[in-house]
What does this fold into?
Amino acid sequence: MAPDKETVAYFQPGTKRRIIMAAIELFAAKGYGGASMRDIAKAVDIKTASIYSHFESKEALLYTIYDAYEFHLAEVLPDMDKLLAELEHEDPRNVLMKSTYYFSPNIQKFMGQTVAVAVYEARTDARSEEFVNKVLLEIPGSITKRLLNRLLELEYIEPLDVDAMVVLLTNYCYSAAVRDNGMHPIGIDDWVKGYTLLTTLIQPTEKGLAAASLSKQGGPTGAR
It folds into this structure.
């Protein structure tokens, strides 16, 4: 995913990037509605009018932040071909855990603040609602659904309601993301424990267990 013209500014040193970084800090601290362009200009130490030479509106600035988030997200999404191949010979619950993703420490704050602002603004702003649904529900949900459907095709797991399991896992991840940027963050170890517990609802079949066992022994694996 190549960033658009406005998003490119986020990755380049200069006034635009300083505006973006100051804006997300203020949006997260005071709320999008509570942070004015004057506040942002003051944080960057420029005149308010100068911001409008870079962004046509506060709304455009917010949406540029969303675009930057999506660019970073695309960089950490798992390789689906690799995951689908691993399903042939690994415990399906381990592969599901591998399908989750994390952001590097240097961008975690930015990503977390963006989610916090978007979730709040999604109540009244259609673009924010679309963004939240896409990055917190639709994208991770589509990954999980594809993996579960393939496992069923391979007959490696017992029959289950795929849509219900997708809702369960994505809602857990959604809640954790919201908590991480609020007053009650959840640590990574506790998050992993919770996710692991949920995946115990996915029961491997004898065929699935045999494939995983054969792989550990170095034998041939794959769908038959």
The CA atoms of residues 190 and 196 lie 10 Å apart. Confidence is low (pLDDT under 50) at residues 218-224. The chain has two domains: 1-76, 78-217. The chain has twelve helices and no strands.
